[in-house]
Amino acid sequence: MFGASFNRKRVKLKKLIGIRARLALLALILVAPLMLERARSLEETRARQVADISVELKDLAQHSASTLREVISSVETIMKSTAYIRASARDGGRSCDMLRASLPVDLPWIRSLLIVGGDGRVQCSTQSTLVGLDLSDRGYFKKAKETRELVFSDFLFAKSDHKPIMIAAYAASAIDAAADAVIVAGVDLDWVSAFMGNLGRQPGVSALLVDGAGVVLAAPEDQANIVGRPVNTLPMLSAVAEKVVGSDQPEGSFSFAASDGSERAINFSRIAGTRSRLIVSVDETRVSADINREIRTAYLQLGFVCLFVLLGALVAAERLIIRPIETITAMAKRFGQGEWAARADSSRLPAEFVPLARAFNAMAAQLFERERELIASNDRLTVMASIDMLSGLANRRGFQSRLDFEWMKAQQYDGQLSLLMIDVDHFKPFNDTYGHPEGDACLARLGEALAGIAAETMGFAGRYGGEEFCLLLPNTDAGRALEIGEMVRAAVQDLGIPHTTSSHETVTVSVGVACVKPNHQQHPGDLIEAADASLYAAKRRGRNAVAEHGLGQTDDSGDPLAMAS
């Protein structure tokens, strides 16, 4: 009993000390300026003011670097979207049209967007004059193909107009390994220079963007002549060029005396995803000249206000802040652990926390409803991901899942499994003659016919790809599979879909039949290969035919494909 009581008191004491320690730290932060002001001298005041300037410089550099990171991120997003378009579109002309239409007009920092072939020549560009340009010798092109990552170049002169530029490159093979194109974007350094000019509008503040080799990429308009020059050749920064460019730190700051004798503070930040660095410098002498005694008055006023706030916090912190926060935190934990009915009781909270409690309750209700909607959406998407929208049958993914399931089931019960591979005869001439819309309509009608036969035979029909369909027949031997194959062939011919370029003058199909009793030495892919071999045999017989392949059987020559008949 004594031990439990002592532990409870120790926990309470720990909480009390924790709160008071934080409040004491706050009091120290608030009162320290008042103490320093009483004993301050002119030099101490100036030092403190310069320190404040350094903090402001760091915040300015970080904010500016963050803005540039967002620019880089937008470039990366555009390039990856273009790479996806390129990898997805089989038609090069279509991907070019989509490229030109996809470049947002509100991104002035992207000068041009190109699709470069594997041989290094520009295949497509938002600037038609760049088509055909050879970029195979550019380092960024080689590196992007090699690493399959987003690559940014150092300072370059554009091959098209010899203007300063920085290039970003991204290999489409990162999206699709079969794609050999590289997406290239030119970053407009004039826009970046204008941004540098806006950054340096404050008196005594200047900004530069340099690449990994220390060459100036962008500068304010009044310093445009230094773009393209190494930073170690600039009088004001030559003394610290190596320290800034050679640093492996993502950011840093220090002070130094410039060649003209002025005291300067430097803050640099690396732009994530590139080798570039943003350098912001402040002439401390110039900035300090405008500081006056009003700062001390402002600190005194701030100190009194903070002291008053601290006294109020000491009186009301536990009741008005700590307890309400703990209550809401407990509700959030319960909700996070899956207790969807958890709600904060606003009647037991101070008035200031009631809106927060109501907001939490509303959020909890919305999250619960969204969780239900998300589960329902995921269920719908799972179904849609396995359906071919044109034919209404299962797509290749859905067929493969069903094949794996039926294969394991047949293994377990020692049953037979048959597969029909069905290919529309002369479908390309059909498309060329009647057009793709009629081709799609033809495939849709075939899908309906196969769906009916699948329902009648207890099979599973799917569209394997293009004009090729499949019909999976569980617990069906080779003889019955051949009968169903003939049923499919006849059903398609009976549809009477006109096909003037075919010798039968109607749309017909060739059917390859394969049957197997699955075992551990075979795989589902073996059944697909056997059915494909049968389909090939049916094509060789003049199409509009049914051929069968006995998986695992061989003729006297030992060739299993020779069993196709």
Major sheet description: 6 strands, antiparallel
Gross morphology: flat
Order of secondary-structure elements: HHHEEHEEEEHEEHEEEHHHHEHHEEHEHE
What percent strand? Answer: 15-25%
**Structural class, please?**
alpha+beta
Instruction: Give the termini separation.
Output: 90 Å
Q: Outline the low-pLDDT stretches.
A: 552-565
What does it look like?
- 50% of the residues lie in helices and 17% in strands.
- The chain is built from 14 helices and 16 strands.
- It has helices at 2-38, 42-88, 92-102, 139-147, 189-199, 241-245, 284-288, 294-336, 354-384, 396-413, 427-434, 436-457, 478-494, 524-540; strands at residues 110-116, 122-125, 151-152, 156-157, 164-171, 182-187, 205-210, 216-218, 251-257, 263-270, 277-283, 417-424, 460-465, 468-474, 509-516, 546-550.
- Strands 1, 2, 3, 4, 5 and 6 form a 6-stranded antiparallel beta sheet that branches. The protein has a 5-stranded antiparallel beta sheet with strand order 8-7-11-10-9. Strands 13-14-12-15-16 form a 5-stranded mixed beta sheet.
- Mean pLDDT is 75; it is low at 552-565.
